[in-house]
Design goal:
Layout (H helix, E strand, L loop, with lengths): L2 H29 L9 H10 L5 H11 L5 H9 L6 H26 L4 H11 L1 H7 L5 H21 L2 H15 L6 H14 L8 H23 L18 H13 L7 H6 L2 H7 L1 H25 L1 H25 L9 H19 L6 H19 L8 H11 L4 E5 L5 H7 L6 E4 L12 H8 L5 E6 L10 H9 L1 E8 L2 E7 L3
Parallel strand pairs: 1-2, 1-3
Antiparallel strand pairs: 3-5, 4-5
Helix pairs in contact: 1-5, 1-6, 2-20, 5-6, 5-7, 5-8, 6-17, 8-9, 9-11, 10-16, 15-16, 15-17, 15-18, 16-17
């Protein structure tokens, strides 16, 4: 073999070696402890309401009339759950979608930048705690990332080749992404800004893209009409972090989660119960470290993109800034706070920018400490995700297991958080014990109605089990436990991550 051929083979092996490592590591992180945590409220909704039904028509009808999100993911789960409904089986599609996204981001980055950026992009996505989180949750977000990457890949191919097949595949994948999550509209807006900026002097080049976008939006119009006319509830899309009113902190927190996920620094409970000032003061060191490390990587990455490929720089910048800007503007208009999971399409260019920043640092001996610090922060976040109860989902499984074991037929179970209702019924096995959610429906406990309601619920019962979750959405001042402590004897109490279980004797 000639030296040039040998050098080419070695270069190819190195180029794909990082991709292979990324896929293996990413697959391990997404499957590890997949069923370890209890399911939570949105996962229970996926299984019990939106993916439930005897036929495809029933699933589509249920999603069409009551779901906030489009139906594609729920249809997939409906058929997948024919194989089983355990925690692992319920979450496995999300894990598979998450793993499949790793080689796809490699292909997207390779269309724009040369080695080693594609391999580094795959590695950044494989390790990203934010993506790992949603690859282990029975919701549609990892599927949205996968389809958005497919949309970006064929968008770039169509932009370069102008072949009808590439345009067709771009349109199909984008429509599928739209029918996975409505926030994919932010991706189309970003692509529109890129097209206008890149071909501003050659408007004829824009015509095929305009035509395919018109077809895509026409295909998605039925859901938009139904969504707007169906008066979907926005109760469940409040922010994770820094209060309930729209704030610039929400945008910053979104970028923070793209970097280190939800399992480093402030926990979900802290973000709901503490003021933004208290949250920042409690976690100042780790917040500062994350902002400095990943802020530096992003700035260096954008600079590196500008040096390597001006068109690639414009693509990354438009796909990052347009979704963030539009989401922030929509938040201010609707007064609905931003939630990082609705910014998934902006996370993709962010991760590629981080990979570009790592590339810039690796080529400079003095800057190599920055990506090393980033890996350390990610490692701490992943450890917390798997092993620290403070960052875990509410452990309804263990709480209900205790009730299943010890409840008596003349007991009543009261679930005080709306987020616990679905998981409770998923795990509850006792058909001889009654249960009730309180307060009924959505909203907060009414202190004036509480005594009357409890008198009706407890009538002719000898014991009451209270299952109290993270009650920021139902009983923040703790009126229900205070009512019981003032009137009845506490006979048993247990605490699990995010859940407090109490049993009161109702014999005065």
């Amino acid at each position: 073999m000639r030296k040039s051929e040998l050098h080419h083979c070695e270069s190819t092996n190195r180029r794909f070696g990082l991709l292979y490592v990324s896929v293996v590591v990413g697959a391990f992180l997404r499957v590890f402890h997949l069923g370890a945590q209890s399911i939570w409220g949105d996962e229970a909704l996926t299984l019990q309401r939106y993916a439930a039904g005897e036929s495809l028509a029933q699933v589509l009808s249920g999603v069409w009339h009551s779901a906030f999100h489009p139906p594609l993911y729920f249809v997939i789960v409906h058929y997948w759950c024919l194989l089983g409904k355990s925690e692992i089986m319920l979450r496995m599609p999300s894990a598979v979608f998450g793993i499949a996204a790793i080689p796809l981001i490699y292909l997207v980055a390779r269309r724009i930048f040369g080695p080693p950026v594609p391999g580094l992009s795959a590695l950044v996505l494989a390790l990203a705690p934010f993506h790992v989180w949603y690859s282990q949750e029975a919701r549609m977000y990892s599927l949205q990332v996968l389809l958005a990457l497919g949309s970006m890949l064929f968008f770039l191919r169509a932009w370069e080749s102008r072949r009808p097949m590439d345009f067709a595949l771009y349109g199909i994948l984008t429509v599928l992404a739209l029918y996975t999550h409505i926030a994919t509209l932010l991706l189309i807006a970003a692509q529109g800004v890129f097209v206008v900026g890149a071909a501003v002097r050659n408007w004829r080049r824009n015509l095929p893209w305009i035509g395919i976008v018109a077809v895509m939006l026409l295909a998605f119009t039925p859901w938009i009409v139904q969504f707007m006319g169906g008066r979907r509830s926005f109760t469940g899309i409040a922010s994770i972090g820094f209060g309930r009113e729209p704030s610039p902190l929400h945008l910053g927190y979104g970028l923070y989660t793209f970097s280190v996920g939800y399992s480093l620094g402030p926990s979900v409970s802290e973000l709901h119960f503490l003021s933004s000032g208290d949250v920042i003061r409690r976690n100042l060191a780790v917040i500062l470290a994350s902002v400095l490390v990943f802020g530096a990587l992003m700035i260096l990455g954008l600079r590196n993109a500008h040096r390597k490929n001006r068109m690639g720089f414009w693509l990354i910048l438009s796909h990052l800034c347009v979704p963030l800007g539009l989401a922030a503007a929509a938040s201010l208009v609707t007064r609905v706070p931003l939630n990082p999971r609705y910014l998934m399409v902006a996370a993709i260019p962010y991760w590629i920018a981080i990979a570009l920043g790592v590339d810039a640092c690796v080529r400079s001996r003095a800057l190599r400490v920055i990506p090393a610090a980033g890996v350390l922060l990610i490692a701490f976040s992943l450890y917390n995700h798997y092993f620290q109860p403070a960052y875990a989902k509410q452990d309804v499984r263990c709480a209900v297991a205790l009730v299943n074991d010890k409840a008596r037929p003349d007991d009543v179970v009261i679930i005080s958080s709306i987020e616990l209702g679905g998981p409770f019924t998923y795990y509850f096995k006792r058909q001889d014990v009654s249960y009730v959610g309180y307060p009924p429906g959505q909203g907060f406990v009414d202190p004036n109605a509480l005594p009357r309601d409890m008198e009706q619920i407890l009538h002719r019962k000898k014991r009451a089990w209270l299952i109290l979750g993270r009650t920021w959405s139902s009983d923040p001042p703790g009126l229900i436990p205070a009512y019981f402590r003032a009137r009845y004897e506490l006979v048993e109490q247990e605490h699990f991550p995010g859940v407090a279980l109490s049993c009161f004797s109702l014999l005065r």
